[in-house]
Amino acid sequence: MDNAVRLTESLEKQGMTAYYFHHKSGLFKVRFGDYPTREAARITAEALVQAGVFSEYYIVSPEDYALARVRLYGKPR
Prior knowledge:
This protein has a single domain, classed as Alpha-Beta Plaits (2-Layer Sandwich), CATH 3.30.70. It is built from 3 helices and 2 strands, in the order H-E-E-H-H. A two-stranded antiparallel ribbon has the order 1-2.
């Protein structure tokens, strides 16, 4: 969890919206950004890899991930 907190704080200091959460796998994961396209997300993630912020990432579209949808848009009515 400490690593997730540090990464979240680091991303927020760079002006990004970020949060961490406990995944069912037992790991803590960090979500950041709200990008208009998958390519825009990839470009940002690759720049962060080059800057040494993290070494691995994966991209999840909000419509593919229920937790992200709730965080972004609120619970369905």
